[in-house]
Write a structure and sequence with these properties.
Elements: H1 10-18, E1 27-32, H2 37-52, E2 60-66, H3 73-86, H4 95-99, E3 102-106, H5 112-129, E4 133-138, H6 145-154, E5 165-169, H7 177-190, E6 196-198, H8 206-216, E7 230-238, H9 247-272, H10 281-294, E8 303-306, E9 308-313, E10 316-318, E11 336-341, E12 353-358, E13 365-372, E14 395-401, E15 405-413, E16 421-429, H11 430-434, H12 442-451, H13 460-477, E17 487-489, H14 495-502
Parallel strand pairs: 1-2, 1-4, 2-3, 4-5, 5-6, 7-12, 9-17
Antiparallel strand pairs: 7-13, 8-11, 9-10, 11-12, 13-14, 14-15, 15-16
Bound molecules: 6-O-phosphono-beta-D-glucopyranose (BG6).
6-O-phosphono-beta-D-glucopyranose (BG6) binds at residues 201, 239, 258, 366.
Length: 511
């Protein structure tokens, strides 16, 4: 059933972006680890999208920093990345002017001379253009975070009387509670908390931000958004890809550290939090924290670990995890995790929240489903024998990606002389209502960081609370060795994942 009444013309969507009244002050964006994939695939395309929308200051410079000596090839490579990954046309009138603002600085991250030379380069821009603000983006492996931050402090680059200095840190923020605390302590020696922007790219996704809009900008959902009406909540982040050559990283991470502790906890906080008093960073952060703090310690029996073996994904043969490059043939790393959470507060007590994430699953899909309780009296139960089977509960599905949108399932009378009930779906699709969107989520986050708005970023206390939740589980898991692999590539994970819900008389929603 197509129900989207409103179609917004692409030019109106673009002008809404342009209506954003705040444009950052002139400054320099310095990306450490700029030779990595993230810079070319996500960061530069996102910065260029901001430029296209007129959201960047005219006086801006972007400096890539990495060890390799790339010279002029860096800007050319970034230009190619903008075209390939940003959906940008070669003849875009703003492209050449933007690429001219991109430069490269080769240095080792522990080389004092390199930092001095960088400082001088930035001072040169300041003199020429008045670019007093700094945004340092640490797109590097986590073992370099503390070192780079320490050097920035030592060379007087972390504070300025003339402009704002901010630092963006990519995940992972630590490996467990202890390492997260140590990392936070190291960074806070140099930067104040309001200068630190811990990025979780899920918060940059329009569909994740829309969870808050859906709940708090509409009057009809919030009254039923609680334990009186909701039977269970499910959040799935399924990927069909494997680990894409990231063996050494993934061996140490696993699905829980890679996705559950951060991306899924962020999504859950938006689904479950109380309405904040405003959309200010502090107000939102306090409400998110309350959700995480109300989650009961996770019991191991409420969790499932899996690891993919060989199989077929999208018609193609796929190797098992243990056969991947630089992965131990006896690896105990989980590529799938499912956890049942319980939130002890007035809104959610007794409503199970099932979350799961996995690699090499049947398809790529990230969704939140809210399953409502059945009506108190089943007036039309004889429909069990009809063509649509048992009467289905109402369901709100928020499709985070792909095919972004929201749907509502309800029962409708099948045209027939009988009272047969069939499930039908009202569907809102982003692409249909607002046109195709080339944004990758980093646009909003980069812009917010340049403006000093931390609402859509992870904060120190939140990172530590979520690690507090998962660290005991991760430790408990190390005590038992599982007979991996326990699911075939291209399936929905181990059988135990279905059993986790079956024990409660429930099922994962079909995705
Ligand atoms: C990253 C993980 O944070 O998120 C990757 O490290 C994962 O393993 C990726 O593939 C998923 O992001 P998205 O935006 O494709 O859902």
């Amino acid at each position: 059933m197509a129900t989207t009444e409103i179609k917004i013309a692409p030019e109106d969507v673009a002008s809404a972006a342009g209506a954003h009244e705040r444009i950052p002050e002139p400054g320099v964006v310095v990306i450490f680890g700029a030779s990595g994939d993230l810079t070319k695939r996500k960061l530069l395309p996102a910065l260029f999208h901001l430029e296209q929308q007129g959201l960047l200051p005219e006086k801006i410079r972007i400096v890539g920093v990495a060890r390799r000596d790339l010279g002029d090839s860096f800007a050319k490579d970034m230009r190619a990345g903008i075209l390939e990954f940003g959906g940008v046309k070669e003849d875009d009138e703003k492209l050449e002017g933007f690429v001219d603002k991109v430069s490269y600085h080769a240095m080792n991250f522990d080389d004092d001379g390199g930092y001095e030379a960088l400082k001088e380069k930035l001072a040169g821009y300041d003199k020429e253009l008045g670019t007093k603000n700094r945004l340092f983006y640490l797109a590097v492996a986590p073992e370099y975070f503390s070192d780079i931050v320490d050097h920035l402090g030592k060379h007087g680059m972390a504070k300025s009387d003339e402009g704002a200095v901010r630092v963006i840190i990519e995940k992972p923020f630590g490996h467990d509670l202890e390492s997260a605390k140590a990392l936070n302590a190291d960074i806070s020696k140099v930067f104040a908390e309001e200068q630190i922007f811990r990025i979780d790219h899920y918060l940059g996704k329009e569909t994740v931000q829309n969870v808050l809009v859906f709940r708090f900008a509409n009057g009809i959902f919030e009254p039923v958004w609680n334990r009186n009406y909701i039977d269970n909540v499910q959040i799935t982040a399924a990927e069909s890809i494997g680990i894409e050559g990231r063996g050494p990283f993934y061996e140490k991470a696993g699905a829980t550290r890679d996705i559950l502790q951060n991306h899924l906890m962020e999504v859950l906080s938006f689904v479950a939090m109380e309405p904040p008093v405003s959309f200010e960073s502090d107000a939102v952060r306090q409400e998110k924290l309350k959700v995480w703090k109300a989650i009961r310690p996770i019991k191991e029996e409420n969790t499932v670990r899996g690891q993919y073996g060989p199989g077929t994904v999208g018609g193609k043969e796929a190797i098992g995890y243990r056969q991947e490059d630089r992965v131990s043939p006896e690896s105990q790393t989980e590529t799938f995790a499912a956890v049942k959470l319980e939130i002890d507060n007035w809104r959610w007590a007794g409503v199970p929240i099932y979350i799961r994430a996995g690699k090499r699953l049947a398809k790529r899909v990230t969704e939140v489903t809210i399953q409502f309780k059945q009506p108190p009296m089943r007036l039309f139960d004889k429909a069990t024998s009809g063509p649509c089977g048992e009467v289905q509960p109402n369901l709100i599905t928020m499709r985070i990606q792909p095919d972004e949108g929201i749907s509502l399932r309800f029962g409708a009378k099948l045209p027939s002389p009988d009272m047969t009930v069939c499930p039908v779906v009202m569907d809102f699709k982003y692409a249909q209502a607002f046109g195709a969107n080339t944004a990758n989520g980093y646009e909003r986050l980069l812009l917010d960081a340049m403006l000093g708005d931390g609402t859509l970023f992870a904060h120190r206390d939140g990172v530590e609370v979520t690690w507090e939740l998962f660290t005991p589980l991760l430790e408990a898991w190390t005590k038992t060795k599982l007979d991996f692999p326990n699911y075939d590539s291209g399936t929905w994970g181990p059988k135990a994942s279905d059993e986790l819900l079956a024990r409660d008389g429930r099922k994962w929603q079909k995705l």
